[in-house]
Amino acid sequence: MRGSKICRKTKETDIALRLDIDGSGQAEIETEVQFLRHMLDTLARYGGFDLELKATGDNDHHLIEDVAIALGTAFREALGDVPVERIASAMVPMDDALVTVSVDIIDRPYCEVDCPDVLYLHFFRSFAMSSGITLHGIVHRGLDEHHIIEATFKALGTALRRAVVPRESILSTKDAVSLRRE
Ligand SMILES: [Mn+2]
Question: Separation of 119 CA from ligand 1 center, angstroms?
């Protein structure tokens, strides 16, 4: 099992997180923001990750940002040095919304995601920066913000599930690219 545990406590937030990348999509999430719970549950389910999270914060911005940082850090640690498929995409429809997410699991943190909500845009950016992945998200169409954000989390989970599949050798024209900071 590729997994990791993170405890992250600041004056603003208190987060305990356990992530198993080779899980079965089970999430146990305790936090006061109902929509964040719903999105993390969606991410875990579509990603095939097992995720346990307890998080409190002094406001929604700090909570959502720090959960994303903890999750990204856990993701990076859980992957370790095992070569993976790296690049994957998923296009996900959800009622009126149609969203594509593409990821590259490589130490080139970048985030360009269309997101109608600034807090969840912050989530995606913080996740990309702390995990080190390249993350793009395109909203092809959509009317309902909830559907657009939820479709983006489904697409992110699906793309990550495809990208973390182990492979025999490292996919790169460079030599070994390690995700671990030495
Ligand atoms: Mn912030």
Answer: 8
Tokens 């600034």, residue located: 118
| Residue 121 resides in a domain | yes
Domain that residue 147 falls in = 3-163
Ligand 1 centre distance from Cα of residue 57 (Å) = 13
Ligand 1 centre to CA of 123 (Å) is: 9
Dihedrals phi, psi of 102, to nearest 5 degrees: -120, 135
Between helix 60-79 and helix 34-47 the angle, nearest 10°, is 20
Angle ∠(108,44,28) on CA atoms, nearest 5: 130
Report the pLDDT value the prediction gives residue 180, as an integer from 0 to 100. Answer: 63
What is the domain count for the chain?
A: 1
CA of 48 to the centre of ligand 1 (A): 28
Q: For the chain (length 182 residues), average pLDDT per consecutive 10?
A: 95 98 97 97 98 98 98 97 95 98 96 97 98 98 98 98 93 66 56
What's the CATH code of the domain at 12? 3.30.230.40
Is there a domain that residue 132 lies in? Answer: yes
| 151 alpha carbon – ligand 1 mean position (Å) | 23
The whole-number pLDDT of residue 182 equals 55
Regarding pTM above 0.85, the answer is yes
